[in-house]
Amino acid sequence: MAPRASILVVDDERSIRDMLSIYLKREGFDVSCAPDGQAALECCQAQKYDIVIADIKMPRLDGIALLHRVREFAPETIFIMITAFASLESARDSMRQDAWDYITKPFDVDDIRRRIDEALSRKIALVEAAPGQAAGTPFGMIGSSAAMRKIFDLIPRAASAKSNVLITGESGTGKELVARAIHYHSNRSENAFVVINCGGIPENLLESELFGYKKGAFTGAQQDKKGFLHAADSGTLFLDEVGDLPPALQVKLLRVVQERTFTPVGATDEHKADVRFIAATNKDLAAEVQAGRFREDLFYRLNVINIHLPPLRERREDIPVLVEFFTRKFAREMGKDVGPVSPFIMECLCDCPFPGNVRELENLIEKSVALAKTSIMLPDVFVEQQPDAADADESPEGIPPGGLMLDEILDRIERRHIDAALRQSGGSIKKAAQLLGITFRSMRYRLQKHGIAK
Ligand SMILES: Nc1ncnc2c1ncn2[C@@H]1O[C@H](COP(=O)(O)OP(=O)(O)OP(=O)(O)O)[C@@H](O)[C@H]1O
Ligand SMILES: [Mg+2]
Description:
Blueprint: E1 6-10, H1 14-26, E2 30-34, H2 37-46, E3 51-55, H3 63-73, E4 78-84, H4 88-96, E5 101-105, H5 109-128, H6 146-160, E6 165-169, H7 175-184, E7 193-197, H8 203-211, H9 228-231, E8 236-240, H10 247-259, E9 261-262, E10 271-272, E11 276-281, H11 285-290, H12 296-302, E12 305-309, H13 318-334, H14 343-351, H15 357-371, H16 379-383, H17 387-390, H18 406-424, H19 429-436, H20 440-449
Parallel strand pairs: 1-2, 1-3, 3-4, 4-5, 6-11, 6-12, 7-8, 8-11
Antiparallel strand pairs: 9-10
Helix pairs in contact: 2-3, 6-7, 10-12, 13-15, 18-19, 19-20
Bound molecules: adenosine-5'-triphosphate (ATP) and magnesium ion.
């Protein structure tokens, strides 16, 4: 049997201490109590606790200060903060200061039990997560939303059909991943999967890249060269960003798709093209057709099977599984013992707009794992890199398409500078105000506004 988890309950209200302690002991935990932060600090110095459940408002040393002090010598200790519902904001602030979770008063004991279990099981999960066990679907794609499950269901069916596929969706939603999954589940999987980025190759080169050329077809063509179509023989040709294909090449591609033959540049003989086409675009191709920028006939030829990947913000249920998947993946790759993110962080991530979709989330987790100092991913590594919080000090390069909330950004910047000044001044408001170049009164007003206690 695993050793009993140890919990320290810290609250200045005796009734709450007693209630929690009786309940948690009955649930089989090893429970100690402390009446304030200072006493709790001494307990933590004497013994290691798995979990500290601490009230935020307490005499002598408050819950957040306690958390800071304990972090210095026992960074793995999980903190669950208790707060009155009215001061939820300060609890959220404490999350940014490294707490794992918070509970609001009045609370119900079952809820506490659930949160403790969650914290403990996550802690154990990091130890037990076997390396190499990739969670998820057979295609290496992760998702639990109804939309993604539909796509997982569609992939093998699209793979066994011979028809062309058009994959649509915003940038970073996983279009290429779906294309690869289709190829590797088709009977062409032994042969090549060739990617051509229709938007990334200059128009004058695209044709010869695609079809190849004969020696002497143009200056510099010193010998025959095979193109992408040839390379994809018996395999799959992935036409990425097909919406960017110039009109002249749309005509030429249509011929290949329709007649399954092509002619290299400068050649006269026709070549057979045994190729399956999968195209992808982040444009609204039907609208491009309407606008006369994309050939309707080519559109219908490519769009036999359509797979649409919704943006991440429309399938937020996928965020937690993706976060866990990427955390494991990068922890393994970097050889770091980094575990799951706290429920609070997960809550924040689930609220993020992620205009860059899964790619953006993946990059965020990669950075966070790289920066993580303890085995639990705590808010600090995320807060430091929230782009709007971190970068907004300097003039931003642009405003994200979803827009932003200037007042909130300014508030956050103000708060960060006040915190920094207070730390530097050792808690002296007067000195902190001087450091920030504001009056004492203005400082007091701002402290009040941010709910920063003296
Ligand atoms: N469902 C998913 N599960 C796991 N990883 C995913 C998933 N969707 C996307 N990714 C990852 O996100 C990143 C972006 O995916 P991908 O390159 O397929 O997107 P895309 O739609 O082709 O983007 P773009 O339009 O910018 O080319 C990749 O690293 C991919 O592995
Ligand atoms: Mg792509």
